[in-house]
Amino acid sequence: MDACDSLSPFSRSVIVPHVGAAAARKLARVKIGIAGAGGLGSNAALLLVRSGIMNVVIADPDVVAPSNLNRQAFMPDDVGTFKVTAVRKRLQAINPDAVIQAHPVQLDAGTVMRLFHTCDAVIEAFDDPAAKGMLVQTLVPAGVTVVAASGIGGWGDSDAICTRQLGDNLIVVGDAVSACTADCPPMAPRVMVTAAKQADVVLAQVLGERGGF
Question: Could you tell me the pTM of the whole model?
Fold first, then answer.
């Protein structure tokens, strides 16, 4: 049997030419969680699925608002739709074989554990610092790798957005300074740099740069 026979058509035609069949299978078998479907979560989800991730669990209770369109992976006709529903539609347009579990629910410690405890890694994509802390405090002790974000507001100096390993299974992306405020609003370039770095951390974990799953 050909090494590619067990892969989806998307993985065979899009991913294998770049990374080979063995790496494509690694990308296809893991399950990645995304907590929040705003600027970070929606953009990271698209990057991961384009990169060959086949199984995604994404949760967010919010609906798309016009003010989201400056940085989030939505279109005007998505306004009023649950963010997770709109993201799932975009992801399955990219790869119809992708398995996207979309949960329009408020996330607390119990829900986070229920939805994400079987994930190989979870991207933290919340706006609220308390929610960020809750997710880290819930999943990291449970052994789930968390890729969090801190300091993504404003514009300029995108080179300050860096990746830091804060424990065996906690990685944080951001400049750790630029909280999103009225004077330092979330803008597409720095938000997307951060989302791309979060997605890249996941790929590096899956493909073995930092040990793999």
Answer: 0.93
Query: What are the sequence ranges of the domains in the chain?
Result: 30-207
3-state SS record for 120-134: CEEEECCCCHHHHHH
Measured between alpha carbons, how far is 146 from 157 in angstroms, rounded to an integer? 25
d(CA 102, CA 114): 14
Q: How far apart are CA 123 and CA 116, in angstroms?
A: 10
- pLDDT (tens digit, 9 = 90+) per residue, 56-99? 999 999 999 999 999 999 999 999 999 999 999 999 999 999 99
Which is the CATH superfamily of the domain at 30-207? NAD(P)-binding Rossmann-like Domain (3.40.50.720)
Q: Tell me the DSSP string of 137-180.
A: HHHTTTT-EEEEE----BSS-GGG-EEEEEETTEEEEE-SS---
